[in-house]
Amino acid sequence: MLRVGVCGDEEKNREYLERFVEKLEVECRIVWFSSEEEVLQNKEEIDIWILNIGEVEESGLEYILKRAERRENNEVKENEKKERSIVVKSKTAYHNVLLNDIIFAENNGRKIILHLEDKILEFYKKMDDLEVELGQDFFRCHRGYLVAMSKITGYDAESIHLKNGESVYLAKRKYSEFTERYMGYIEGRQT
Fold first, then answer.
1. For residues 11, 4, 64 and 55, what is the CA-based torsion angle, rounded to 10 degrees?
2. Which residue among 1, 99, 115, 153 is least enclosed by CB atoms within 10 Å?
3. What is the spatial distance between Cα 136 and Cα 151, in angstroms, rounded to a whole number?
4. More confident position, 56 or 175
5. Which of 9-13, 50-54, 148-152 has maximum average pLDDT?
6. Is residue 78 pLDDT above 70, yes or no?
7. Where are the domains of the chain?
8. Over 60-116, what HEC string results?
9. How far is the C-alpha of 145 from the C-alpha of 139, rounded, in Å?
10. At residue 163, does pLDDT exceed 60?
C-alpha cells in the first residue's frame, strides 16, 4: 500500500485529494498533518510527502501519484519475477529453477544447457518451448541462445555480455529487435 503524507490544513484541498485518490486504481492511504511540527514527530513510514499544500493543481498531483503507482506496480512485478520458477528434469533429478537465477540458456544438439548463478543444468527440451515458458524477461538473441535481460551488463554489434563474465552471440538480424527490447526493459525498471 502506498502511504502519502500531506501537510496542509485547507479543507477543500483535503476533500479534493481524497476524491482524487479514490479514483485511482492503486491502494493508497493518506496521512494528514496540520503542521510542520506534526511532520517532524511522525514515526510512520511515508512513501510520498506533499508539504504545505496551497491550491492543489490537478496535473502536478496526477503526475506524483501516477509515478508512485508505476513504482508500486514495478515492485509487484519484480517480486513476482523473483518468485517465478520452472521445473526441469536432468538425468538424475527434477530441479525447481527460479527464473531470477537463470543467466542464459544455450542449445547443444537436442539438449539445453542452463547457466544459473551457482550451477549448470543440462536437460532435453526444445529451445522454442523454453523461450515461451520463460517469457518476456528473456530474449532469444540467436537460434542457440536465450538470455535473461536482468543479467545483461552490456552489448555490442556481435555479442551480449553477461553478469557472469561470459558473452553470447547476437545474430545480426536480431540486433535491432534486441536493442529495442533491451532499452524498453531498462526504462521499465527505472520508472
1. 20
2. 1
3. 14
4. 175
5. 148-152
6. no
7. 2-82, 85-190
8. HHHHHHHHHHHHHHHHHHHHHHHHCEEEEECCCCEEEEEHHHEEEEEEECCEEEEEE
9. 8
10. yes
88 neighbors 43 (Cβ within 8 angstroms): no
Quote the cell numbers at residue 178.
Answer: 534486441
Model pLDDT for residues 21-44, shown as the tens digit of each residue: 777 767 888 888 777 777 778 777
The pTM score is 0.58
What average pLDDT is seen over the chain? 83
DSSP code per residue over 133-168: HH-TTEEEEETTEEEEGGGEEEE-SSEEEETTS-EE
Are 130 and 92 contacting, i.e. CB atoms less than 8 angstroms apart?
no
Cell of 103: 543467466
Tell me how far apart the alpha carbons of residues 82 and 113 are, in angstroms, rounded to a whole number: 21
pLDDT at 62: 57
CATH 2.40.50.1020 assigned to 85-190? yes
What's the grid cell of residue 151?
Answer: 543479467
CA dist 30 → 6, 161, 171 (Å):
7, 44, 51
The mean pLDDT of 42-68, rounded to a whole number, is 63
Please say if the pLDDT value at position 56 is more than 90.
no
Count of C-beta atoms within a 10 Å radius of residue 187:
9
